[in-house]
Amino acid sequence: MMSLRTNADRLVAQTLTGEVWPPLADRHGYRVDADGHPFLLPGMGGVSMAAHIGEAATGYASDHLEPGLSIRHANEGANAALQFLSCVGNRVTVRSGPAAGATGTVFGQHAYVLADFDDDALGLVTTGDRVSVEAFGQGLVLLDHPSIRVKNLDPRLLGGLPFSTAPDGTLAVQVAKRVPAEAAGAGGGMLSEFANTDLMGAYPGLSDDLSLGLESLRIGDLVLLEDQDHSYGRGYRPGWVTVGVISTGECRLFGHGPGPSTLLSGPASAFTITESDEANLAIALSSPAIPETTHA
């Protein structure tokens, strides 16, 4: 296997700002799951002290679980930049409050930019605390793989990810799980630099006929989305595949579920895919090949 050549030396880094956004609800409260059961559960926004990178994404009493910090900006345009330019592997620094100076790592996007921190830092952070994101990665190109689009990926993370150029010239990628096209739910039609794709078929405790075998997903798992093209938006395209990283957890709404943020997309013929339980962001972040700036 050969290492990857990129244009990382030509990319631009920007410091973006945001704040830890509070959980939001309305007075009606209850939602309804795929079997018609009402529920009222926590999940989105704020500080969620569950499911660090490498831990189970499902099985929690939650709705649209966003682990770690949920970050956005109060200004609409600034928030769009935060969503579009933040990349998986970017460093996040708390700038106000008792946790000021603590650092973490972006691991995906949803309604907010999501960042993982250790428990000590999470115990000190609260909603309204300001953070900065060292945004770096949009515009990344794999020079030897021109048919593959790269999205939302800090190039400094590449040294720890199970990506390489195979002897036949394809991009060799290890994933934790293959996801069939029918599992792609909410997020279709949206820009692949924004939010993520919810996966149906990971509904523990609901009807057996709803399962697609995705209940074992972990936060940070690399997954292969079959027949999905995320080059310019997100949609069904036979013969194409997308590689993403699971960034959100348990969700009870039909058509929703744990979801991957897009990293790679292109024709299936451009990839050589193998499966491995070690294809998780936790292992990549602990690799000695990763510069310290990407560590949580």
UniProtKB/TrEMBL annotation:
Which InterPro entries does the protein's record reference? DUF4438_C, DUF4438_N, TM_1086_sf, TM_1086_SG_dom
Pfam families (UniProt xref): DUF4438 (PF14505), DUF4438_C (PF20999)
Question: Ranges for the DUF4438 domain?
Answer: 30-158, 165-282
Q: What is this protein called?
A: DUF4438 domain-containing protein
